[in-house]
């Protein structure tokens, strides 16, 4: 489902477009309408599922609709660590870029100035506060911190917070917030203590569990970080290795399938494109030839990733990075079936680095980045983190401190729009369509 279909505020859609998020992840698809509707929610989801967007987007949507006078400490996100608070704040900055919603991360440590900046932001009433429990309690002691207009309390990584001994702090904070708020609890696991906590602070919550599938153990996963122009020559070089006997190449579009087929066959690599343009009997025949070993390389879009059950595929190549982690797992699951071994190689262009990072986060592993053959030149660096928040200049310094500024459209450090478009596409040697 696209974000437009989720009917988010136009300014948020603009931010999403700028960051390059097109489709909602499963948790976002479920949670966004529920949160907008106003229900309490328990979500069992890990990092990598897009959980942060799942709670930030609907909250930003709601804040963006409010009149100025109703906007005062609207949302409190409680997280276990300073790092997570900063990370969430950076996502908020990116997503809320065009909405003028203000946020402040509040965490312990730092010098007296940090404490004072955080205190002032709370007193002035930033829209969103992303806080670790201890520091928040210290700041809530000030009479000038007024949570009476708070509408959302969000607990992120609740299981980790309980492991770290924050239960009583959480209960204390929630007891000082308005009763008629909406409460959302996100946790990677659901031990009984989390249920007990949920019973205490949530009202008739709905629940979602995002099951995480993991790739089979026998799959050797590798990736190449490339420019678009390096993809075809690299694929050709990989397929010239004749230890791979049965290969599937996944691409994102029908046009790409045709281009790849044409190019590989110039090198007599025995490739055939599997496309929805083929009629049913031609598809079946092609699939039989592939199963029987008469076609060595089958190229297709995701339509072949779920259905086919061919044993003996020893290499899967993601010519384009799959749109979401579940697709990645389905695609590479075509190899190493029935306990056999197999290799899965993904080519990551600059535009897809963040998508690939999300896949790595979800499966909880760094996938080795391989060296590109020397004659193809150097590839780009792998810097997915920079590509997520990094398109947007930080409002403050590198310590995560930033000048607080309140009010709609109040973002001071906004880069010129032409700059920012330039950043999005920088280094990409060809347009996505020409891949
Ligand atoms: P999270 O599970 O919130 O830690 O998100 C993991 C990564 O997925 C982050 O790098 C996000 O920027 C990215 N992400 C979240 N939602 C989307 C989406 N709808 N499309 C693409 N990437 C996303």
At CATH level 3, the topology of the largest domain is Rossmann fold
For CATH, the homologous superfamily of the largest domain is named as P-loop containing nucleotide triphosphate hydrolases
Question: How many separate structural domains?
Answer: 2
Portion in beta strands = 5-15%
Order of helices and strands: HHEHEHEHEHEHHEHEEHEHEHEHEHEHHH
3D structure, described in words:
The chain is 40% helix and 14% strand. The relative contact order is 0.13. It contains 17 helices and 13 strands. Strand 3 (103-106), helix 5 and strand 4 form a beta-alpha-beta unit. The chain has helices at 10-19, 26-37, 51-65, 82-95, 112-124, 133-140, 158-163, 167-175, 192-201, 228-239, 254-266, 280-291, 303-307, 325-332, 353-363, 384-389, 417-425, and strands at 41-44, 75-78, 103-106, 128-131, 152-155, 182-187, 206-209, 219-225, 247-250, 271-274, 297-300, 315-318, 342-348. The radius of gyration is 24 Å and the shape is elongated. The chain has 2 domains: 10-210, Rossmann fold; 219-428, P-loop containing nucleotide triphosphate hydrolases (Rossmann fold), CATH 3.40.50. It has 435 residues and is α/β, with parallel strands linked by helices. Strands 3-4-2-5-6-1-7 form a 7-stranded parallel beta sheet, with helices on both faces. The structure holds adenosine monophosphate (AMP). The site of adenosine monophosphate has 16 residues, from helix 3 and helix 15.
């Amino acid at each position: 489902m696209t974000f437009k279909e989720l009917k988010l505020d136009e300014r948020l859609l603009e931010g999403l477009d700028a960051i390059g998020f097109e489709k909602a992840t499963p948790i976002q698809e479920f949670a966004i309408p529920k949160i907008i509707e106003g229900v309490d929610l328990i979500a069992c989801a890990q990092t990598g599922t897009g959980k942060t967007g799942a709670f930030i987007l609907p909250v930003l949507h709601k804040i963006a609709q409010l009149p100025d006078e109703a906007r005062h400490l609207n949302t409190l996100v409680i997280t276990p660590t300073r790092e997570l608070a900063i990370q969430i704040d950076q996502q908020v900055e990116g997503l809320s870029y065009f909405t003028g919603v203000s946020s402040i991360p509040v965490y312990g440590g730092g010098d007296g100035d940090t404490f004072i900046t955080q205190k002032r932001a709370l007193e002035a009433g930033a829209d969103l506060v992303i806080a670790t429990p201890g520091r928040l309690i210290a700041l809530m002691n000030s009479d000038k911190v007024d949570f009476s207009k708070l509408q959302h309390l969000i607990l992120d990584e609740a299981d980790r917070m309980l492991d770290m001994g924050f239960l009583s702090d959480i209960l204390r904070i929630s007891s000082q917030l308005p009763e008629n708020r909406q409460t959302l609890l996100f946790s990677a696991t659901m031990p009984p203590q989390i249920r007990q906590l949920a019973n205490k602070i949530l009202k008739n919550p709905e629940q979602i569990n995002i099951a995480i599938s993991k790739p089979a153990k026998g799959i050797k996963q590798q990736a190449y970080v490339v420019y678009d122009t390096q993809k075809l020559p690299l694929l050709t070089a990989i397929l010239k290795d004749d230890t791979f006997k049965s290969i599937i190449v996944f691409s994102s579009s029908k046009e790409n399938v045709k281009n790849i087929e044409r190019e590989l066959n110039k090198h007599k690599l025995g490739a055939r494109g599997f496309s929805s343009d083929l009629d049913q009997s031609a598809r079946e025949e092609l699939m039989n030839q592939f199963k029987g070993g008469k076609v060595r390389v089958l190229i297709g879009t995701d339509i072949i990733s779920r259905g086919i059950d061919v044993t003996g595929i020893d290499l899967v190549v993601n010519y384009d990075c799959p749109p979401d982690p579940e697709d990645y797992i389905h695609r590479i699951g075509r190899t190493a079936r029935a306990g056999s071994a197999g290799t899965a190689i993904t080519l990551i262009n600059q535009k897809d680095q963040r998508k690939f990072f999300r896949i790595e986060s979800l499966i909880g592993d760094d996938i080795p980045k391989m060296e590109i053959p020397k004659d193809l030149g150097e590839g780009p660096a792998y810097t997915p983190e920079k590509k997520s928040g990094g398109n947007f200049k930080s409002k403050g310094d590198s310590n995560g401190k930033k000048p607080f500024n309140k009010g709609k459209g109040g973002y001071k450090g906004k880069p010129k729009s032409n700059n920012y478009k330039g950043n999005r596409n920088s280094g990409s040697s060809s347009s996505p369509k020409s891949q």
